[in-house]
Amino acid sequence: MLPLLLFLVSIVLPGSLAHGPGKCVLTDTRDPAHELAPFSEAQAQIPWTSTFKDDFDVPPPPLEILSLVVSGPSSNRVDLIFFADGYVQDEREKFFEDAKRLAEDISGNQTFNTVKPLMNFWAAFTPSKESGVGVGGKPKNTAFGLYRDGTELRGVYYAKPAVAAAACSSLGDQCDYPILLGNDPLYGGLGGRFTVITPSIANGALILRHELGHSIINVGEEYDGGYAYFGSNSYNNLSKAVPWAQWLTDPDPTHVRVERAVMPMQAYAWTLLNTSTPWSVKFDSSGAYARHLVRFSVSGLPEAADLRVELDGEDLGWTPRADIGLDRYHYDVHRDGGLSAGEHTLSFTLLNGAREPEAQMCSAEILEFGDESEFVATPGHYSLYPTFSLDNQTTYRPTNEDCLMRQVTTPNFCKACIEGLWLALLRNVSLIDGIDASCVGSAADEDLTKLTLRLVPLAQFRAAAVAGLSESYTVTWRKDGQVIGKFTNSTEAEVGSGQYTIEVQYATNEVRVDRDDRLKAQVQYTVDGGCTKS
Ligand SMILES: *[C@@H]1O[C@H](CO)[C@@H](O)[C@H](O)[C@H]1NC(C)=O
Ligand SMILES: *[C@@H]1O[C@H](CO)[C@@H](O)[C@H](O)[C@H]1NC(C)=O
Ligand SMILES: *[C@@H]1O[C@H](CO)[C@@H](O)[C@H](O)[C@H]1NC(C)=O
Ligand SMILES: *[C@@H]1O[C@H](CO)[C@@H](O)[C@H](O)[C@H]1NC(C)=O
Ligand SMILES: *[C@@H]1O[C@H](CO)[C@@H](O)[C@H](O)[C@H]1NC(C)=O
Ligand SMILES: *[C@@H]1O[C@H](CO)[C@@H](O)[C@H](O)[C@H]1NC(C)=O
């Protein structure tokens, strides 16, 4: 369980304002809905429940629960639940559809698909008095009081943490990861104990899966310009063992190398654009790299004719994502050829005055790379890729752009994160759901008991096979310590009196190192005779 305190900490972090030009109301240096979770390992240790039960004592709101994607009993699953905010009674159907779309997007064929049998997704409807989320720091009359600070597309906060907490605790083990879904079509959210998202078509699922990466796997960022880098996807001391050594494309430890790249500029501008003066930034290049990338995000700009993005006066040919409307989106312009040594200028010129005051420059970054022999940009390559923090400190990540913890437009985790995901979920889920016993007819002079093992539906029990996934269960039965070979790999056994131990070992190509034996489970059962079929 992660602390609510985390959220409180998130909006008062030091270093605020330092980056944001005047227009930005938020005091957080990071993009709260892209880099929103203010995670640190220290913070994650604080038990959240103890901090606020005493402070607030409110009853839970009415909740109508619908199952979205359910794989087993909540007592042995990790349960995610969407709560409705800003959906009035007439929008009940819309809420269930939005929640279902998001749950299916992140578990249907990607992201959490392979681990779906360890998870449940639910939707809990509470009618709000008003529709939508508040703006200008002022919540509407809604279930959890969601609001934006200004009108800009960034953080979405909640005014009623106690109501959210009461809603979640009233559901017991059905609410491991609460998600507050705010009824607004555009980008926005927040990480922490309560993940806040919107059903934005372009961004809702993308923010959700990134935030769940933080809260479930307990990993930090992989993108540049953040400050929280930790967990199974992060490495910062080249004289220590590489945490994802088991995934390196070239496993020879003497071949481990840092891919060659540098970040000469990054800015979280969060600035409204105007037609009188372009937003621009100058930076220096060493002239020592073969390729470069211009990465940025903008919102409020639905047409290509609304904006011109230039590097040293050269039009980069920006076109918005199809159907993006006023929503925020991320763009990459990869350019072969190095930047020359010396000063360069990146500029964003608003061409259409009608887009003021919605047009927003959110973030911009320049990266320079060596050629393919110095920096392998190819997807699927695992090595040490440098990531540059807000303060330009270097840590390393496993892949170039394979992971949604780096590139939010990517729908999947890298292998190091997926392995971490399995291990994190299996901390809270046993591979054995239970064991049932029933009497069968007598054999010789003893009545037999039929033991049936109920396993979490992985491997041969999976509802639908997943392409590229190879997995298996190995089941070993022991009676009074001795292996009963004929029952190996069976989930059923007809046995006489005795003490039985059944051990289950799961294997998947998505987990290569399992130091704590999380992929193993064991159950004991004593059959004490007297099993007579009536
Ligand atoms: C998953 O399904 C969605 C929606 O049908 C589709 O856009 C996406 O490309 C699919 N992803 C994969 C990895 O097949
Ligand atoms: C890096 O790891 C080495 C070996 O464990 C250790 O001696 C050194 O102090 C570490 N450096 C930093 C900066 O933590
Ligand atoms: C980060 O540090 C590198 C190496 O010192 C330097 O070349 C680069 O310009 C710096 N980037 C920023 C944004 O300060
Ligand atoms: C227009 O935008 C530029 C660049 O962000 C900024 O410096 C300037 O203050 C803005 N002008 C007005 C009138 O808002
Ligand atoms: C998962 O297990 C860990 C360790 O046993 C525990 O601290 C945590 O509260 C559990 N989380 C959930 C969601 O049950
Ligand atoms: C049991 O299943 C495992 C995993 O598929 C397999 O490796 C093993 O050979 C099987 N054992 C027997 C005795 O069939």
Structural overview:
The strands form seven sheets. The chain has a six-stranded mixed β-sheet with strand order 1-3-2-6-8-7, covered by helices on one side. Strands 9, 10, 12, 15 and 17 form a five-stranded antiparallel β-sheet that branches. Strands 11-16-13-14 form a four-stranded antiparallel β-sheet, with no helix packed on it. By secondary structure, it is of the alpha+beta class. It folds into three domains: 41-217, Collagenase (Catalytic Domain) (3-Layer(aba) Sandwich), CATH 3.40.390.10; 245-421, Jelly Rolls (Sandwich), CATH 2.60.120.1200; 431-527, Immunoglobulin-like. The protein has helices at 5-10, 41-44, 48-52, 92-107, 161-169, 204-217, 415-428, and strands at 64-69, 78-85, 119-125, 146-148, 156-158, 177-182, 189-190, 195-197, 261-267, 271-272, 279-285, 291-299, 307-311, 314-315, 329-336, 342-350, 360-369, 385-388, 394-397, 432-443, 446-455, 471-479, 482-483, 492-495, 498-508, 520-527. Mean pLDDT is 88; it is low at 1-55. A hairpin with a 7-residue loop joins strand 4 and strand 5. The structure holds 2-acetamido-2-deoxy-beta-D-glucopyranose (6 copies).
List the helices and strands and how they pair.
Layout: H1 5-10, H2 41-44, H3 48-52, E1 64-69, E2 78-85, H4 92-107, E3 119-125, E4 146-148, E5 156-158, H5 161-169, E6 177-182, E7 189-190, E8 195-197, H6 204-217, E9 261-267, E10 271-272, E11 279-285, E12 291-299, E13 307-311, E14 314-315, E15 329-336, E16 342-350, E17 360-369, E18 385-388, E19 394-397, H7 415-428, E20 432-443, E21 446-455, E22 471-479, E23 482-483, E24 492-495, E25 498-508, E26 520-527
Parallel strand pairs: 2-3, 2-6, 6-8
Antiparallel strand pairs: 1-3, 4-5, 7-8, 9-17, 10-17, 11-16, 12-15, 12-17, 13-14, 13-16, 18-19, 20-21, 21-24, 22-23, 22-25, 25-26
The protein binds 2-acetamido-2-deoxy-beta-D-glucopyranose (6 copies).
